[in-house]
Design goal:
63% helix; Arc Repressor Mutant, subunit A; two-stranded antiparallel ribbon; 5 domains
């Protein structure tokens, strides 16, 4: 069969790329003897390559696992590997061959791959469809391109080990998981050694040579390990549950390095374990301890990321994935994330900042909530948050429009009526504000803050006795809320000129158990009242106590 050079496209033969010539012949015409590639003076063949040239390039191709060499009696038989076929198809693109030739080669590559895999699985009598599917998934992800020192056979056997020891097969009934020693005895058959399999596992699982994260769980009762990876269903659920719980725990406030400590990690481990083992039945209970250790190490790595930044975007955390854009869960999670991010920016804007920084925070808050609205125009919380941002910017007319939208979408959300009332107060529509707050109280009569807001409206209307009476309800509902006492003291002192009564309200809240930040606020208010009474000396003593608590907070700088 005279394949060289008669049946080689002229584009390939002319430039004498011998690697490509050898790959093309083996890819198109199948396994060949060495003699079919080289010149032969006995047969008068002088238009091929000489023996040394062939050996030089064949040796290079074999070292890259692009071809195989076997012996048939006295003859060396050369054949192309699956990796070699992929490489050939890649190289042929530069030769601009006709489309028919390329399509034929692709069909051959596909057929060859299917045939080789079928032969391999039949050799080891692998009939379980779930094992076959897992093997094919791994085969698609782990190629000899990343493990060039491994032959096709060695790679297939090593992949079979990972497939048999996937965590889904670890249970009492299937009895599929197998120890490394037993696997080598059963499937190695002089083709793969224990050392070679360990080398494979080290590179794939530990060093992530194929750019896939594998998770290894070492069995405590048996002498084997089970695996799952970041790209399969177990890995996605594993990371998804952790992602969801992190958001539940931390996205309601600002994430910082002070509130994500070991005790929190331990609590999270227990919660994730319950979800994975008890709720979803994904992992066997015998894997509880190694799974706990895996979750803990995973979270400790996240802790290192938290410590680097004050505010952390959960989508950028190490190994935390972005969810699939088209799924309903993605829309919910992403919406939740945008809403909370908008609130965080708004809280930042509420702090003392340079004007440009203040504008930037408000702008960021508005951008995030507008993105949330684009994701779900029927979500009432989107409009409630946008109301707060617009109100913060002083755009009360627009804020009224957005809060009305929120109320229309969810007329039973009491806090929306409270927000509505605040805008009405800012626009001096006090009677309408009272109606709005009373509606909130009607829906949720035990929320102390609503009574505090209603008291503020009465105060604006100079109805101080009514304001104190209403505030009394708030204090009764939440007697430990320092801010309500301070509010009462201000009404007594600054509106009703009952300074001594105001001081008694403050003094009754000061005791050894008072929390530090609350104590600071009480001292500050007490000092203000004393200054209003022209009692500067007593005020100075109180200011001194406050400054002892927070030396860097500036209060009454002229005193």
């Amino acid at each position: 069969m005279n394949n060289i050079p008669d049946k080689i496209p002229i584009q390939i033969w002319e430039i004498k790329q011998y690697e490509d010539i050898i790959l093309f012949v083996l890819g198109v015409y199948g396994p060949m003897r060495r003699e079919e590639f080289i010149n032969s003076s006995e047969k008068g063949i002088t238009n091929r390559m000489n023996k040394n040239t062939f050996h030089k390039w064949a040796k290079k191709l074999k070292s890259k696992n692009l071809i195989n060499v076997s012996r048939d009696q006295q003859n060396s038989i050369y054949s192309i590997t699956s990796l070699g076929m992929k490489e050939l198809l890649k190289r042929l693109k530069s030769y601009r061959l006709d489309i028919k030739t390329i399509l034929n080669l692709e069909q051959k590559a596909f057929s060859k791959n299917i045939y080789q895999i079928t032969q391999f699985l039949n050799l080891f009598d692998i009939k379980n469809i779930n094992i076959v599917i897992e093997f094919l998934k791994l085969k698609n992800e782990l190629t000899t391109e990343k493990l060039k020192s491994f032959s096709e056979d060695k790679l297939n056997i090593s992949i079979l080990y990972l497939a048999l020891n996937h965590v889904k097969f670890f249970n009492d009934t299937l009895n599929i998981s197998i120890s490394l020693d037993d696997f080598i005895r059963k499937y190695g058959k002089n083709k793969l050694t224990k050392t070679e399999l360990k080398w494979f596992l080290h590179n794939v699982v530990v060093k992530e040579a194929c750019y896939i994260t594998f998770y290894e769980l070492k069995s405590l009762n048996e002498d084997f390990c089970v695996y799952f990876r970041s790209t399969d269903e177990y890995g996605i659920i594993f990371k998804g549950i952790i992602q969801s719980m992190l958001r539940d725990h931390y996205y309601l406030g600002i994430i910082n390095s002070n509130n994500f400590k070991e005790i929190v990690i331990n609590d999270l481990c227990e919660e994730v374990l319950f979800e994975l083992i008890n709720k979803h039945n994904l992992f066997h209970e015998d894997l509880e301890i190694p799974l706990y250790n895996l979750i803990r190490n995973y979270l400790i790595n996240l802790l290192k990321e938290f410590k680097k930044k004050y505010l952390v975007n959960c989508h950028n955390l190490k190994e935390i994935p972005s969810l699939i854009l088209t799924s309903d869960i993605y829309i919910f999670e992403r919406l939740d994330y945008l809403q909370k991010k908008a609130i965080i920016y708004l809280k930042k804007a509420d702090k003392e900042l340079p004007p440009y920084k203040h504008r930037e925070m408000v702008k960021n808050a508005l951008e995030n909530i507008n993105k949330a609205i684009n994701l779900d125009i029927k979500n009432s919380l989107n409009y409630a948050i946008k109301t707060q941002i617009l109100q913060f910017k002083g755009k009360y007319k627009e804020a009224l429009g957005t809060i009305k939208k929120a109320i229309e979408m969810d007329p039973k959300a009491a806090n929306y009526y409270s927000d509505f009332a605040f805008i009405l107060i800012w626009t001096n529509k006090f009677e309408k504000a009272i109606k709005a707050i009373n509606k909130a109280i009607e829906i949720e009569p035990t929320v102390a803050e609503y009574y505090s807001h209603l008291a503020s409206v009465y105060c604006f209307l100079n109805q101080y006795e009514k304001a104190l009476e209403t505030l009394g309800v708030a204090i009764k509902l939440d007697p430990n809320m320092t801010q309500f006492r301070i509010q009462k003291a201000r009404y007594l002192a600054y509106y009703m000129k009952k300074y001594k009564d105001a001081l008694r309200v403050i003094e009754n809240m000061i005791n050894p158990n008072t929390e530090k930040s609350s104590l600071f606020e009480l001292y500050k208010e007490q000092a203000g009242i004393l200054l209003s009474m022209k009692n500067k000396e007593a005020a100075q003593k109180v200011i001194y106590k406050a400054r002892q608590l927070y030396p860097y907070d500036v209060i009454f700088p002229n005193i």
